[in-house]
Amino acid sequence: MARTAHTPEERAALQTRRRFARRQWARRWLAWKYVVAALLLVVLVGGGTYAVFFSDALAADGVEVTGERTLTDDQVREVARVPLGDPLARVDLDAIQRRVESLPVVKSAEVSRQWPHDVLIEVEERTAVAVVEIAGSLRGLDAEGIVFGTYREAPDGLPRVRTTATTSGDALREAALVVAALPSDLAARVNHVEVLTVDQIALELKDGRRVRWGSSAQSEEKAEVLEALLLQDAQVYDVSVPGNPTTSSR
């Protein structure tokens, strides 16, 4: 069959229909492209969520401990109770931090995820500024008045805090503030600190001389006054009111 010749008008109409068909196809493909992209995004997000929060691909399988001095890694890991094998993203870091900070010797702890499989526990231990005897045991006392740890013998360089049966926790904290404020050379001359109440704190020096300190208020000023006062020959030095210090023979 012979091919029918198209007139210029027919060819123009045919080209118009083809261009229209291409535009229609392009519009349909653009719409489907967004649908396909959205579906791929859903699959990727869903797969990623499953991999991170529910599968064992990113499970916690190690615990790293840093910053400890007297504690061992195993002691920290034991109290931390990190749920090894659980997805790392679902591990409760706050709960681990609370458990580690429940150790008396721990001042603070920071817990973080170390992708892809580890939990990092950074420990800051308390530092003793004095030793206090409680129920027959020597315990450390930090600058915040927190009692922690035990010692067989008092460490060198740490003054001992003596309490009575009626010494309150507030009074013990005051004593800790006093000791923490002492310059190192003065602290080295202190045999022990006696604590009766929050404003009845005294220092017993190693040479037998006694210092009435009062409360922890103005401790730095009291220490400066005492340094000069100790040059005077006396047995008792009173710096409880640093602006009006006194000395006596007994």
From TrEMBL:
It comes from the Bacteria. It is found in: Cell membrane; Membrane. Pfam families: FtsQ_DivIB_C, POTRA_1. Keywords: Cell cycle, Cell division, Cell membrane, Membrane, Transmembrane, Transmembrane helix. GO terms for biological process: cell septum assembly; FtsZ-dependent cytokinesis. It is a single-pass type II membrane protein. Its main location: membrane. One of its GO terms (cellular component) is cell division site. The chain crosses the membrane at residues 31-53. Residues 58-126 form the POTRA domain. The keyword Acetylation does not apply. InterPro entries: Cell_div_FtsQ/DivIB_C (IPR005548), FtsQ (IPR026579), FtsQ_DivIB (IPR050487), POTRA (IPR034746), POTRA_FtsQ_type (IPR013685). Essential cell division protein. Belongs to the FtsQ/DivIB family. FtsQ subfamily. This is Cell division protein FtsQ. It comes from Nocardioides szechwanensis. The lineage of its organism: Bacteria, Bacillati, Actinomycetota, Actinomycetes, Propionibacteriales.
